[in-house]
Amino acid sequence: MIYKRKEELVSTFQYDGDLRGKNGYYVPDWAVQLHELGQLYYDKGTDGREPCELFFENSNGLYHVAVNDYIVKDNEGNISVVPAEKFKEKYEKVVKH
Predict the structure, then answer these.
(1) What's the structural domain count of the chain?
(2) Is 86 part of any domain?
(3) Degrees (nearest 5) of the Cα angle 45, 69, 74?
(4) Is residue 4 one of the residues assigned to a domain?
(5) Which of 27, 33, 35, 64 would give a disulfide with 40, using CB separation of 3.0 to 4.6 Å?
(6) What's the order of all strands across the beta sheet hosting 51-58?
(7) What is the C-alpha separation between 63 and 89, in angstroms, rounded?
(8) What is the pLDDT of residues 9-52, one digit of tens each?
(9) Could you tell me if residue 96 is inside a domain?
(10) Contact status, residue 82 vs residue 74, Cβ threshold 8 Å
(11) For the chain, where are the alpha helices, taking DSSP H only?
(12) Is position 22 within any domain?
């Protein structure tokens, strides 16, 4: 038998190197909540300098979020980090009419 993956709407944002600007957060509310809870946080990079690398941690492990990666929240509330190339293969932007 052949199956097609069901279409699913997700909430996402592309990480651009920061989560907030001079007017506050500019990411979805769920990402702000993850940041405030300490699940989405900055830590030292591999060079050991000041916290400058973004990480996401959940019960499945610790994930590095590179600039241009997407952070995706699915309909069940699961969060994943998706590299930009993979994101473009799997997702397409929904145009609201």
Answers:
(1) 1
(2) yes
(3) 120
(4) no
(5) 35
(6) 40-44, 51-58, 61-65
(7) 20
(8) 899 999 999 999 999 999 999 999 999 999 999 987 666 666 67
(9) no
(10) no
(11) 29-37, 84-90
(12) yes
Q: What is the DSSP letter of 94?
A: P
Total count of residues recorded for the chain: 97
What would the two tokens of residue 5 be?
């993956």
Burial 11-24 (b: 16+ CB within 10 A, else e): ebeebeeebeeeee
Closest Cα partner for 70 from 30, 25, 12? Answer: 12
Predicted model pTM: 0.81
> Which tens digits make up the pLDDT trace of 70-92?
999 988 899 999 999 999 888 88
The percent of residues in the chain predicted with pLDDT above 90, rounded, is 61
Cβ–Cβ under 8 Å, residues 43 and 51: yes
